[in-house]
Amino acid sequence: MSDSDKTAELEFNDTSLGLPILSPTLGPDAIDIRRLYADGGVFTYDPGFTSTASCKSTITYIDGLKGELLYRGYPIEQLAEKSHYLEVCYLLLYGELPTAAELEDFEARITRHTMVHEQMNYFFRGFRRDAHPMAIMVGVVGAMSAFYPDSTDVTDPRQREIASIRMIAKMPTIAAMAYKYSLGQPFVYPRNDLDYASNFLRMCFSVPAEDYEVNPILARAMDRIFTLHADHEQNASTSTVRLSGSSGANPFACIAAGIACLWGPAHGGANQAALEMLKEIGSVDRIPEYIARAKDKSDPFRLMGFGHRVYKNFDPRARVMKQSADEVLDLLGIENNETLKVAKELERIALEDEYFQEKKLFPNVDFYSGIILEAMGFPTSMFTPIFAVSRTVGWIAQWKEMISDPEQKIGRPRQLYIGAPKRDYVDVENR
Ligand code: SDX
Question: What is the distance between the alpha carbons of residues 301 and 290, in angstroms, rounded to a whole number?
Answer without folding.
Answer: 8
